[in-house]
Amino acid sequence: MNKSDIPFLSATELSALIEKREVSSVEAVEAYLERIGQVDGKLNSYITVCSDEALQAARQADESIARGEHRGAMHGVPTAVKDQFYTKGIRTTAGSTILWDFVPDEDATVIANLKEAGAVILGKLNLSEFALGESFHHPGGTPHNPWDLTRNPGISSSGSAAATGAFLCATSLGEDTGGSTRIPAAWSGLVGLRPSWGRVSRHGVLPACWSMDTVGPISRTVEDCAITFRAIAGYDPKDPYTWDMPVPDYRAALDGNIQGLRVGVVSEKVGGPDVDPQVRDAVVAAFGVLGELGASVREVSLPLIDKAGAFSKALTDMEGASVHYKGLKERPNDYDHNTRVRLLTAILTPAQHYYKAQKLRAMLRQQILDLLEEVDVLVLPTSPTPAPKIPDGPGISSREEADGKIFGVRNFTGPFNLANLPALAMPCGFTSDNLPISLQIAGRPFEEGTVMRVGHAYERATDWHTRRPPI
Fold first, then answer.
1. What share of the chain is helix, strand, coil (3-state, %, to 5)?
2. How far apart are CA 238 and CA 111, in angstroms?
3. Are 88 and 104 in contact (CB under 8 A)?
4. For residue 373, what are the contacts with CB-CB under 8 A and spacing of at least 6?
5. Cβ(390)–Cβ(144) under 8 Å?
């Protein structure tokens, strides 16, 4: 195989070739490093590229595979991770000048798990500051969308989406608090999974919002997502909020069979005025494909969904403000303008608002769980619009702009981080401007396998995931 073709393989395709020793892990790493050097100057997806460390890990992977010690689907696969996770001996910045020179002395559990699975860490990926939402100033450079360099690749796992979408890594890790794996996946034509809360350890993950933070994969296919997720999921004694339960073989569940599975279409988020007509048409067509594949598809109602963005934002910002209270007192001007404004606003928000948001959260979660007694999964758009333009300045100029930026997409992703349920974003079409459109599939607690099985069946019946961005 020509080395320049290697980055365009899926992670699962590359994994099979590495296992059979038809491609070496070293060759794969070299191919990705070469493409990063050629392309990433346009995208700013990486903050730190770990060339020497990656090549050393790749050599070790090749040697162990040659000895017959293959560790599984991620062994030797070049992977990149959001710069929110501790990496021993490699700086972890959280996309902020405040931590620009911080070098941890241990790996986050998800990084340790990737290494144990044999994955090769290519580098650390760009993000919104402290994973808190749309930043204006990025010390690692403003991330760009590979489908249109004038547009946002997603918040807050911006680099994870840009790098994976532009074939600068085989698969990646992001982190999702209010939508930060799903929104980047949606805007960049990728598959992004938010796992159930407690399915993946957060030890060594710089926090944004304790009650909603989760680590999940951003990949090019559902199968790639499944193998990445299996490598990081599981109980961790260092994180008392992880669940001590077996991790299934998610990839084995991707059999393409969804015959008789009950699919609930969230009616409030399909035809509303906030949904772009091209998005509406694409997701409605996706619902039809699921029906053709044998699923039972019907509309359901989730009355509180239009308030989900407000609930999610209130809790995220107020919990984030508690994390950064000391930093805001001592170094307020070192925070990005947008981060500083939202956190200071949260600090000044009365405690009763936080309490009310938690009560409303519980009501919304119960509505969702009740629906999931009637159906097996819920489906709706991931984002009401395609990727927006990168803003040319900080701040917000009108109430309408504030509503759109603060609550718009979060009304679609927010229900499932509020309910701590698994949700998958995946491509289901493109606009007339060749921008990705995304379908969201959500399920019951710890039923990531079901969610991915539905996504994989849809993916096999369509070709949206095979399109390449013009970069």
1. 45, 15, 40
2. 14
3. yes
4. none
5. yes
Neighbours of 434 (CB within 10 A): 13
Show the domains of the chain with their CATH numbers.
Answer: 3-253 (3.90.1300.10), 263-444 (3.90.1300.10)
Q: Which residues of 335-373 are buried (b: 16+ CB within 10 A; e: fewer)?
A: bbebbbebbbebbeeeeeebeebeebbeebbebbeebbe
As to burial, measured by CB atoms within 10 angstroms (0-12 exposed, 13-18 middle, 19+ buried), residue 97 is: middle
In eight-state DSSP terms, residue 187 is: H
Q: Is 131 left (phi over 0), alpha (psi -120 to 50) or beta?
A: left
- In 3D, which of 176, 422, 415 has the Cα closest to residue 307? 415
Q: What are phi and psi of 99, to 5 degrees?
A: -110, 20
Q: Which residues are catalytic?
A: 82, 156, 180
Q: How far is CA 386 from CA 147, 165, 187, 193, 361, in A?
A: 11, 15, 6, 18, 27
How would you classify the pairing of strands 377-381 and 262-266? parallel
- Give the span between the Cα atoms of 471 and 469, in whole angstroms: 6
pTM for this entry: 0.97
Q: What is the pLDDT of residues 217-253, one digit of tens each?
A: 999 999 999 999 999 999 999 999 999 999 999 999 9
Task: Report strand pairing: 262-266 vs 214-219.
Answer: unpaired
pLDDT of residue 239: 98
Which tens digits make up the pLDDT trace of 142-183?
A: 999 999 999 999 999 999 999 999 999 999 999 999 999 999
Residue 415 CB: number of other CB atoms within 10 A? Answer: 30
- For the sheet with 423-430, list strands across it: 46-49, 120-125, 78-82, 171-176, 214-219, 191-194, 423-430, 436-443, 377-381, 262-266, 296-300
Q: Distance between CA 181 and CA 351 in Å, rounded?
A: 29
Tally of CA atoms within 13 A in the half-sphere of 196 that contains its CB = 20
